[in-house]
Design goal:
Length: about 160
């Protein structure tokens, strides 16, 4: 019997600094590459496409040290000219990040670090968020076929 190889979760952090006012903070991520499968491609103006992704930061909400923030990275930044390009791949450190002081996307990667909330990020977004949350359910169609079973931590239930 072969045992399936488990995917290792990516968790990284780095310091990002604003090019306008020198504001800096630690940014966290759960993906190394922002790809079409990880984000969503959106046209923000005619012919101007961006890929959306998420980063996590501890300077947005004093009650939540790992607060998500949506990013909008221009496709042309990675050399992509069309949303249909299958080689779309942007490293997370290349994402423009919003400065909380300037209110513009002027923060850029400075250096990798081990953020003080790394353990919380790993627990919340790399382990807990990936666990199924559904009760054990069995459906059988009107002909007695089509059994579907979902298992999880039994903490939530969804009928959808």
């Amino acid at each position: 019997m072969s045992i399936p190889k488990l995917r290792h979760h990516y968790c990284g952090s780095a310091i990002f600094t604003c090019s306008c006012c020198a504001y800096f903070t630690t940014i966290y991520t759960t993906v190394e590459w922002v790809e079409e499968e990880e984000g969503e491609i959106e046209e923000v103006s005619p012919g101007e496409w961006v890929i959306q992704g998420f980063i996590y930061r501890d300077d947005l909400d004093k009650n939540d040290p790992i607060h998500p923030q949506l990013t909008h990275t221009p496709l042309k930044q990675s050399g992509v000219t069309s949303k249909d390009d299958l080689k779309l791949k942007i490293h997370w450190t290349e994402q423009p990040v919003r400065c909380m002081s300037c209110k513009t996307d002027t923060m850029h990667f400075t250096e990798y670090n081990v953020g003080e909330n790394m353990e919380l990020l790993h627990k919340r977004w790399c382990i807990e968020a990936l666990k199924p949350r559904y009760e054990l359910i069995t459906w059988i169609d009107e002909n007695g076929n089509g059994i579907i079973r979902l298992q999880g931590s039994h903490s939530k239930f969804s009928a959808s």
